[in-house]
Amino acid sequence: QQGDTIQDTTELVFVDLPELPFAGTMEVKSFHGEKVIETNFLSDHHHLTFEDTTITFQESLDKSRLHVEAHHGSQFTPPYVENWIAEALVFSTARSIQPRMVIRHFEEYALVSIRATPNSMVSGMIPPFSSAPDTRDAFWQSFCAYLSTCKATHEFENLKMTTGFRELCLANKGTLQGSLLSLSIYIEFCMNQLLPSVQSENAEVIDKARVKDFLGYVNAWSKDTAITERAIRILNQLNTPDLAAIMDVLIEKSVITEKHKKVWKAIRPTLAHGKLIDYREEKFWHFRNYLITMMYRLMFRIIGYKGLVLEYDGSKFQYIPYEWKE
Predict the structure, then answer these.
(1) FRET label pair with 298: which of 1, 2, 66, 107, CA 20 to 30 Å apart?
(2) For residue 203, pLDDT beyond 80
């Protein structure tokens, strides 16, 4: 594209996004002849300062598209920018979205790419924040925290956390059993991500090389296949961190609560062995709600966010202050 007047900027166009908590408003007047008969104010844009650059979000008048304009900054350049912003929006909206159009503006030219995207990307996952004004600041604060995590990693490919969350959003469109299984596995993944930050200096470190030697020795023993297989399964457990101990540390640091640990431990063993959970549907929903709030607390801890967090008290959702300890 010749004659491009925009430089050092990446533009993205998304479709089928939920309403975002915009701070900027537009005045819309309805006329009858020259007389104003109605005046409305619509929230349709948001300006965000991210480190040494700015990002602008603009919703189309018919609310069918979201236009994002991100100015390039230090270590915030194509082709990474488009993926990182998409990842942060995946987390913030709990939808497995991709931009339909990307325009990379350089000094003398622009590159335009258009991809096919589904008409609807609605998921069954409850997002971390609503679009209400009282959680607006928390929404954008967590968005920036996720974006910072992507930038710090500086990878073109999605974070494993993002990839898993995309799959989780899709899984929550299915059965309750599948939803609980996906949530419990993803929570386990998040706890493993936090393992380096919760292990004490005196914690016993798993010697994987030694475990591998044990496995090789047992595997070479061919007297009784059944016993050998059982021994290998037991030895493989030595590579698995003690999640109960990790949860105790996370509770002590105010990352999760005792209730979260109790719910996760109540259903994870059953799900891990491929069994159906024989509960009334109402209890299924309670478990799901507790696991969702547990998951967001863990994800917030990973990205270093403190602020409001979604909480479930057994009957309703609400937002409460979230201040974990180092």
Answers:
(1) 66
(2) no
